[in-house]
Known about the structure:
There is one protein chain. By secondary structure, the chain is α+β, with helices and mostly antiparallel strands. It has 3 helices and 5 strands. It has one domain: 2-Layer Sandwich (YaeB-like fold), CATH 3.30.2310. Strands 1-5-4-3-2 form a 5-stranded mixed beta sheet. The chain is globular. The model has no long low-confidence stretch (mean pLDDT 92).
Amino acid sequence: MRELIPTPRFERALRKFTRRDAQLRERVQKTLEQMQEKVFATNLGTHKLSGSLDGIYACTCGYDCRVLFSIQKDLTTESESIVLLDVGNHNDVY
């Protein structure tokens, strides 16, 4: 199981994005739990970004909800961590 490491930017964006919608917050939470288990599950639609966001991944947690993250590997323990970078609708995060 991978460890999720939220950045301060991600936490602010999550609070702002889900402020008025408790169901959206639950959807994001379920997506994060699934990312811990299998980050490349087909229903997440995980894909690598290019251009100015090269090296970053994105996945979907609903019609207009995206989570941006990177995967870091610890060379000593060979474990992977998911660093959560941003969350929001398509136009906000890209």
